[in-house]
Amino acid sequence: MNLTRPTLAAPVALVLLLAGCAKAPDPQVASLQNYVDRQAIETTLIRYSTGLDTFNAELYASAFTEDGVFAMEGKSYKGRAEIATVITDLIADRAKRAADADPTNDPPPSMHHVLTNAVIDITSPNTATHRAYWMTVNGGPAMYSFRIAAQGRYEDELVKQGGQWLISKRKIL
Q1: What would be the CATH architecture of the domain defined by 26-172?
Q2: pLDDT tens digits, residue range 38-58?
Q3: Residue 8 and residue 47: Cα distance in Å, rounded?
Q4: In degrees, to the nearest 5, what angle opens at C-alpha 112 toward C-alphas 143 and 166?
Q5: Which of 18, 93, 112, 169 has a C-alpha 20 to 30 A away from that of 99?
Q6: Residue 96 CB burial class (10 angstroms; 0-12, 13-18, ≥19)
């Protein structure tokens, strides 16, 4: 063994020792990121509801990934273009109902989607799940005429793409 020649063993051992003693991630930084992610997810969920309630197909579909999946009542829609048809079909149905209705009756009621008991779980830096109850409150021109028209549950999977949280899968139960 040549004692005058340095070996790589000592530097490698030092690097491994230092790596094992590295400082743990700051829990405050992780907590702040968790808060930021939750707020971004809530914004995506509000964009979905706003698009639905205002019959804005583009806004509605923008809450999903390009290849997102939306499933309800035994139907499944894949991709933003197909998901947008949920709104365009709803618009067409409302127009048909308005045309067929007695002109002395109120127009089709407005919709307001309300979420409750929401739970968001951040499962990794780029994935999350969301579960919530929802109800659709419908009403006519008189404020006192609102009623709960439908209710159910959302089961969502979300992903972070390009720094933005989007729904990759939504199932309505």
Answers
A1: Roll (3.10)
A2: 999 999 999 999 999 999 999
A3: 57
A4: 160
A5: 112
A6: exposed
